[in-house]
Automatic annotation (TrEMBL):
PANTHER family to which the protein is assigned, alphabetical: CARBOXYPEPTIDASE, SERINE PROTEASE FAMILY S10 SERINE CARBOXYPEPTIDASE
TM region positions: none
EC number: 3.4.16.-
Protein name: Carboxypeptidase
Enzyme class per UniProt: hydrolase
Any GO MF annotation of the entry: serine-type carboxypeptidase activity
A GO CC term assigned to this protein in UniProt: vacuole
Family: Belongs to the peptidase S10 family.
Keywords: Carboxypeptidase, Disulfide bond, Glycoprotein, Hydrolase, Protease, Secreted, Signal
Pfam families referenced in this protein's UniProt entry, alphabetically: Peptidase_S10
Biological role: Probable carboxypeptidase.
């Protein structure tokens, strides 16, 4: 794949310069950037926060972007510009259809949501897809540059086309959310969200503004996708869109389905099978499993309390249930828990630092319309703020979506421990809906891509579960051709054909 020239960018200056806050002489006069390291909720899970972030080699200089005294906040306004990182490719800005923008969230004090939008390389009639990265608090730009966006970042910080970018079969949106993630920011800490109601309302408001800005796409089918903690975001957003459509709240959004990759959706089910998966993969022994399983009753009790009572009981559930995961790791040793075939070497289980360096370049930020902000790859502030949400069961609104014919695809790379295929299969099979018995009795078939068996597929009516072979937590990164074909077949209603 040939490297494509970017905007001319000089990297003669030290990287350290780009990541530190600018001196007062070089700041925009109306902004003061705060360095927020404190937790908004509690400090006890900091070790897990740091472990999750360090395993991705993500250490943003700032934990969240809060800008003091930001003038001109107009709730509901959307400012978008077209850009091109591929000037030497022969395509014009208009031809490429690459957009970046900010949306001023109307139900916040002063939050602005950043997004990328890439029109389909194939047809503008292709479905509109929104991608949400998890964390909570990790930017969707990580997926954009390393999984399913139009291009990837090479080691020399040039861009190369991604032959399996999802923009080949869809018009795709990548959003930095919740507020404080990526290039999204606010001038008030109160805009850092703590629950799915606030998160889904913001995304719904954004989609209303997006389709108002791009009315030519309102007729297109719309699908919600993402991975990991987006197993919480996606059902909440799908439910919010569906309710908005039914109530005729605004522009009708042509929602046809939602897909979750290696997600955390029903922790009360998923945490309980960690040891089953670990034994099956040879990470722990049966004796280890018996010992670790002594923690399960406390996890079950506290999770039920969280669902009923919320608040501090959810933090108690988080602590009780993550102890199961932590004890597996203490036995398994230095594994990459996003892909158990691999070992972690230092903090470099995955090295996404090229994208962070690229996005923190001043010329790149200028092309995207980003102000004097540091790119926050994964925000521990957002992560900690969402801890009361972590153990909530987000499958509760899914049955009503299925009954109305909205399609659900749950897919999982088989080598991921942290959101493993077994836990996802368990909650999907246990889901109470009118087609549950039909799904449980459905025959599992092979998912074949270009003549090669790529996974095991179980489908019944609007529900599909796909275990993908030789992939970890990030399926589009590990199996890009398979992931692209999966999206194409599913959005066309042909996945089980």
């Amino acid at each position: 794949m040939a490297s494509l020239s970017l905007i001319k960018i000089s990297f003669a200056l030290s990287l350290f310069f780009f990541l530190l806050p600018s001196s007062s002489s070089s700041r925009l006069s109306f902004t003061t950037l705060k360095n927020h390291h404190q937790s908004l909720t509690t400090s006890y899970p900091q070790s897990q926060t740091e472990r999750l972030r360090s395993s991705f080699n993500l250490f943003p200089e700032y934990q969240v972007n809060i800008i003091d005294n930001e003038p001109g906040f107009t709730p509901g306004s959307l400012v978008e510009k077209k850009f091109s990182f591929l000037a030497a490719s022969g395509s014009s800005v208009e031809d490429l259809g690459h957009h970046a923008g900010y949306y001023s969230l109307p139900h916040t004090k002063a939050a602005r949501m950043f997004y990328f939008f890439f029109e389909s390389r194939t047809s503008k009639d292709d479905p509109v897809v929104i991608w949400l990265t998890g964390g909570p608090g990790c930017s969707s730009a990580i997926a954009l540059f390393y999984e399913n966006g139009p291009f990837k970042v090479a080691n020399n910080l040039s861009l190369v086309w991604n032959d399996y970018g999802w923009d080949k079969v869809s018009n795709i949106i990548f959003v930095d959310q919740p507020t404080g993630t990526g290039f999204s920011y606010s001038s008030d800490e109160v805009d850092i969200h703590t629950n799915e109601t606030s998160v889904s309302n913001d995304l719904y408001d954004f989609l209303q503004a997006f389709f108002k800005e791009h009315p030519q796409f309102t007729k297109n089918e719309f699908f919600i996708t993402g991975e990991s903690y987006a197993g919480h975001y996606i059902p909440a957003l799908a439910s919010r869109v569906h309710k908005g459509n039914k109530a005729k709240e605004g522009i009708p959004i042509n929602l046809k389905g939602f897909a979750i990759g290696n997600g955390l959706t029903n922790p009360g089910v998923q945490y309980l099978v960690y040891t089953d998966y670990a034994v099956d993969k040879g990470l722990i022994t049966k004796e280890d499993q018996d010992n670790i399983n002594l923690l399960i009753p406390d996890c079950e009790r506290t999770t039920k309390s969280c669902q009923t009572n919320g608040g501090d009981s959810c933090l108690e559930a988080y602590e009780a249930c993550t102890s199961i995961f932590d004890n597996i790791l203490s036995v398994a040793g230095n594994i990459n828990y996003y892909d158990v075939r691999k070992q972690c070497e230092g903090n470099l289980c995955y090295d996404f630092s090229n994208a962070v360096t690229f996005l923190n370049d001043r010329t790149v930020k200028a092309a995207l319309g980003v102000k004097n902000l540091s790119f926050v790859s994964c925000s521990s502030t957002v992560y900690n703020a969402m801890l009361n949400d972590w153990m909530k069961n987000l499958e509760v609104d899914i049955p009503s979506l299925l009954e109305d014919g909205i399609r659900m695809l749950i897919y999982a790379g088989e080598e991921d421990l942290v959101c493993n295929w077994l836990g996802n299969s368990k909650w999907v099979h246990a889901l109470k809906w009118s087609g549950q018995k039909g799904f449980e009795s459905a025959t599992t078939t092979k998912f074949v891509v270009d003549g090669v068996t790529a996974g095991d597929l179980t489908s019944h009516e609007p529900v599909s579960f796909l275990k993908i072979f030789e992939a970890g937590h990030m399926v589009p990164m590990d199996q890009p051709k398979v992931a692209l074909q999966m999206l194409k077949s599913w959005t066309e209603g042909k996945l089980a054909a």
